[in-house]
Specification:
single chain; about 90 residues; 2 domains; 3-stranded antiparallel sheet; about 45% helix
Length: about 90
């Protein structure tokens, strides 16, 4: 039985403390790089998944050609009705 205990002790790898800081730093750097790639990919996927609705700072009425201006790009739903002809059909001016 005593020889069995000696063989098991030989099979267990010796843990070394030398170089663990280097491995930890490498793993942390790799993890940070992979997380940055993941975040970039997730942002790209979110942009693709968004409905492809158009946003514009200016919208032109299809009937009377009145142009509604906004301070920031807005979707078609925000334009409402034309103040001239009361139509709700607009096209974006890019």
């Amino acid at each position: 039985m005593s020889s069995l205990g000696a063989n098991t002790a030989e099979l267990r790898p010796q843990t070394k403390t030398v170089g663990t800081q280097l491995v930890d730093a490498t793993l942390k750097a790799m993890k940070a790089a992979l997380e940055a790639v993941r975040d970039t990919a997730m942002n790209a996927l979110k942009q693709i998944e968004r409905p492809q609705e158009q946003h514009s700072m200016s919208w032109k009425c299809k009937q009377c050609r009145y142009v509604k201006h906004f301070t920031k790009p807005v979707p078609l739903e925000t334009t409402g009705r034309c103040p001239r002809c009361k139509s709700n059909e607009f096209t974006p001016i890019l």
